């Protein structure tokens, strides 16, 4: 990697760190290519990104971003997972780490808040943004459904009464 490629990589990572909602630092302890590909796929499914970056370049890219405290986690064979959704990257990485002991969650950051391994695992246990949206829509929709049922109930009762009178007259 020559100097221009390195500066391009630093600029690209810096732009990413300016926009994302969460960054998770993982340590890969002997993962195979197939395992790494599987992890990337699972992370991509939730709308997140997983990238192995040189620690030195990642440390340079962290400067002047909300994630400046992550430098302490960048040592050894690390990789970064990030997403705009504050929960997606953490949830995907933690789920994969449960099934594969070669992936270790080192730490992370959400906005300016530095998280240790326990913090990332706690973040992963929270519902995702899409799940929260679904619950919110359900809560908003429930009163409207109940109002429609209450408004329609008297008309349905009247229809049953008229039907009963009609059946009585026919008999």
Can you walk through the features of this model?
The chain is α+β, with helices and mostly antiparallel strands and 171 residues long. The protein folds into 2 domains: 3-126, 2-Layer Sandwich (Alpha-Beta Plaits); 128-171. 58% of the residues lie in helices and 16% in strands. The protein is built from 6 helices and 5 strands, in the order αβαβαβαββαα. The chain has helices at 3-19, 33-45, 55-62, 88-99, 117-124, 129-170, and strands spanning 22-28, 49-51, 78-83, 103-110, 113-115. The chain has a 5-stranded antiparallel beta sheet with strand order 2-3-1-4-5. The longest helix has 42 residues, at 129-170. It is elongated and about 95 Å long. It comes from Tsuneonella suprasediminis. Keywords: Ribonucleoprotein, Ribosomal protein, RNA-binding, rRNA-binding. Belongs to the universal ribosomal protein uL10 family. Forms part of the ribosomal stalk, playing a central role in the interaction of the ribosome with GTP-bound translation factors. This is Large ribosomal subunit protein uL10.
Question: What's the topology here?
Answer:
Elements: H1 3-19, E1 22-28, H2 33-45, E2 49-51, H3 55-62, E3 78-83, H4 88-99, E4 103-110, E5 113-115, H5 117-124, H6 129-170
Antiparallel strand pairs: 1-3, 1-4, 2-3, 4-5
Summarize the structure.
The protein has 171 residues and is of the alpha+beta class. It has six helices and five strands.
């Amino acid at each position: 990697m020559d100097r221009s490629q390195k500066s391009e990589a630093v600029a690209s990572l810096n732009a990413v760190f300016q926009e994302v909602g969460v960054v998770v630092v993982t340590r890969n302890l002997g993962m195979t290519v197939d395992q790494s590909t599987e992890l990337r796929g699972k992370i991509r499914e939730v709308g997140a990104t997983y990238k192995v970056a040189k620690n030195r370049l990642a440390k340079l890219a962290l400067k002047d971003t909300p994630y400046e405290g992550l430098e302490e986690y960048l040592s050894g064979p690390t990789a970064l997972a990030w997403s705009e959704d504050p929960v997606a990257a953490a949830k995907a990485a933690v789920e994969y780490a449960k099934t594969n002991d070669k992936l270790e969650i080192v730490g992370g950051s959400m906005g300016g808040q530095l998280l240790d391994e326990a913090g990332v695992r706690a973040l992963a246990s929270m519902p995702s943004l899409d799940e929260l949206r679904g619950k919110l829509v359900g809560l908003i929709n429930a009163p409207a459904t109940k109002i429609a049922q209450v408004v329609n109930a008297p008309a349905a009762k009247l229809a049953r009464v008229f039907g009963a009178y009609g059946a009585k007259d026919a008999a």
